[in-house]
Each structure stands twice: as C-alpha cells, then as structure tokens.
Design the sequence.
C-alpha cells in the first residue's frame, strides 16, 4: 500500500524542519503553508517537498490547509494519507505499523498512536499536553491532528470542514463513523510534539480554543454527536458560570460564609482530580495536583471560547485562528 504525507504549518521554524526531515523521502510529501514569514516555504522546497501556499487574505484554518494538501495528491499516488502537524516529528516505525493495521481491518478509516510531548518537563503546560494525548488503546471516537487515513474514507466523508477553526478532526471522525467507518488508536509510538508552551497566556489561549471546539461540535452535531462534547460543555458551564453565580447570590442573600462554602467546591474538585490522576497514571503528587488545578481553572478559558463561538454564530461573524504559540503573559 502506498502512503502520501501532508504536513501543515505556520511559522513553525525549527519544529517544521524536524517534521519534514522525519517524512520518508521516497514518498509523496506535501507541505501546506498558511502565511509563514520565517522561511518555512524555502526550507521545504530545499528538501524536495512539494509546497502548497494558501494565498494572502485566506481565512487560515488547519482544516483548509489539510484539504489543500489532499487536493494536491495525484489520484493514483496513494492509498493511505498520513497527516501531521508541522510541530511534530514522525516516529520512524509508525507508518509501517499503522498501514498494517489499516490493511488488516478494511472498515478502519483512520488509525493513530501515541503522540508525546518532546519536552514535558519544560513546563506544566507541556505536561498537560502529554497527559491529554495519552488516550486508551482501542476503538476511539476521534483522532487528533496526526493520523494515518484510508484515502477512500477521507474522500467519502468529503474531507475536513474548512469552516471550523478548531475541532476539525473530531468533526471529520464523526462523519466517518456515521458512514460506517471506525477509528482506532493502536499501541505504537506515532509523533513527538513540541508545544513550546512556557507562559500561562499560551495555555489559556489553547484552552480557550478547546472550549470553542466543544461548543461548536456540540451545536453542529447535537444528540447525534459524541456525548463527550456535550459533557464538556455542561462541565464548563457548571464550573465557570453556574457555580460563580450561585456563590454570588449566596453571598448577597445569606452571607459571606455561604459564598465561601460554595467556592470551597473548587478545591474539593481539584483534590478529587488529583487523586484520580495519581491512581490512574501513577503521577507524582506535585504533578497530579498541578494538572488538576489547571484543569479546573481551564473551565473559565473554555467558557470564553464557547462564548466566542456562539457570539460569532449569532452575529454572523467568521472567526479566525486561535493561536497560542505567540500569546503573551
């Protein structure tokens, strides 16, 4: 079975160089650039990679870039398509193992493996990424930005939805599953990712983007979609909207002690999550508590992202990328 490779990026610098160098030179390789100004295009061309540049003024989205890459693959060039984000380096053994899995199960549309953070010790934010990607092996509801697809399945589903500024992979997988295809995570190393998150502002923007994605996916797919999306929306609304309002009302109606009693639910939730992570993942207590703290705090960032989606939906405005690598603080 033949495999084509699509990498996408925007100002990824050295991360993109590592990404492109990890792609097999004897296979079709396409790099789709979304307005980089750091020499990414010149480097890719120098590596013999076919470059597709999205024109200036384009409403850049990862979905649009991946679709552009798919359109650039000749019809007979590949049975499978490996998509990879430009800040990820592909494991040398990944494609062979993933292609074998797709070949063995004809109803599999996509397989993905373990994406690891390259520098999890650099910050708690990087560590959160690594924890987030450690999903169970087996049949899954969706994949992430790195995955090996059966090309026929991708074409049957119509590719990625270019209107989405986040959550394009879960949306695609939902449509694939509706068509009868399956998604699987296999027990194999896949990519090494460089989140490069060292500031809280970066983490906040990335978490805001996840809230935007959950809100839009839940709205678009409704009851037919992944129940996880609706649970996440309910969770962020409960912790970042309902509970603060209850605390405020209790403070005015009963007294400050009543407000404090409500607010005390936050550290209780942090403790509950920390204990769960210690038991399930065997994390050191300090890491487990830090992850738990940021997961609870992140509900407020997610609500901001969800509110942004619904505001734009109701006002008819189109949203742009929510980028985190250049965020301040």
Sequence:
């Amino acid at each position: 079975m033949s495999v084509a490779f699509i990498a996408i990026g925007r100002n990824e610098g050295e991360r993109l160089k590592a990404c492109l160098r990890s792609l097999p030179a004897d296979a079709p390789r396409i790099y789709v650039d979304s307005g980089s100004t750091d020499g990414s295009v010149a480097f890719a061309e120098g590596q013999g990679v076919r470059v597709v540049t999205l024109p200036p003024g384009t409403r850049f989205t990862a979905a649009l870039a991946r679709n552009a890459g798919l359109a650039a693959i000749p019809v007979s060039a590949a049975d499978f398509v490996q998509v990879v984000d430009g800040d990820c380096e592909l494991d040398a053994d990944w494609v062979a193992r993933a292609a074998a899995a797709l070949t063995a199960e004809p109803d599999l549309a996509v397989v993905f493996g373990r994406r690891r953070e390259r520098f999890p010790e650099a910050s708690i934010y990087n560590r959160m990424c690594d924890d987030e990607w450690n999903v169970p092996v087996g049949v899954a509801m969706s994949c992430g930005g790195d995955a090996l697809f059966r090309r026929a399945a991708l074409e049957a589903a119509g590719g990625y939805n270019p209107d989405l500024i986040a959550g394009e992979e879960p949306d695609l997988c939902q449509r694939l599953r509706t068509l009868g295809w399956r998604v699987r995570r296999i027990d194999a190393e896949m990519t090494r990712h460089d989140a490069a998150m060292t500031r809280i502002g970066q983490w906040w923007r990335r978490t805001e983007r996840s809230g935007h994605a959950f809100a839009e996916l839940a709205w678009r797919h409704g009851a037919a979609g992944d129940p996880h999306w609706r649970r996440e929306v309910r969770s962020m609304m409960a912790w970042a909207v309902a509970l603060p309002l209850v605390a405020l009302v209790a403070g005015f109606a009963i007294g400050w002690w009543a407000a404090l009693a409500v607010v005390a639910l936050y550290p209780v939730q942090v403790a509950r999550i920390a204990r769960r992570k210690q038991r399930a993942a065997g994390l050191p207590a300090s890491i487990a508590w830090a992850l738990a703290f940021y997961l609870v705090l992140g509900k407020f960032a997610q609500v901001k992202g969800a509110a942004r989606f619904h505001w734009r939906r109701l006002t008819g405005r189109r949203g742009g990328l929510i980028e985190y690598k250049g965020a301040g603080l």
User: Anything to note?
Assistant: Residues 245 and 259 are 10 Å apart (CA to CA). The beta strands are 3-9, 29-33, 50-53, 80-85, 88-90, 108-117, 138-140, 147-150, 182-193.
